[in-house]
Hints:
Blueprint: H1 18-21, H2 30-50, H3 56-75, H4 77-98, H5 103-129
Amino acid sequence: MGEDLSNDMPEPSESEPVPGKIGDTEIWWLPIVALGFFPLIFSIMWLENSLDDPPSWFWVFWDFVVYPVVSISLGLSPILVLVYVVYLVRVTRKRIENGTTNLALSLFHLLTLIVPFLGFGLFLLFAGASGA
């Protein structure tokens, strides 16, 4: 009953802010998402424009699911691209320090960086053409 348990408790650690943690660990699926995000968004937009007489459930699905997701993700795309750039720089720096980088991986990361930039450029082109 008289045991002092205060020595067994770990000290609270100072946590690093979130921007300092970006790129500390590699997320294997993030480059795949970066490669497929804008093609998926633009193919959904093409599907909506190509249907002559869509079923009635399509418009409910479009208005309440697809349109908000597409609008929010394209609106946040400049921030998402910048976060992805910071992630790639930090992961590449860590791989160079560890000596685990190679040409194929660097080219793959460069390709996954080009696709979001092209998608964002197309978004700006479409927004400018529509007078937004």
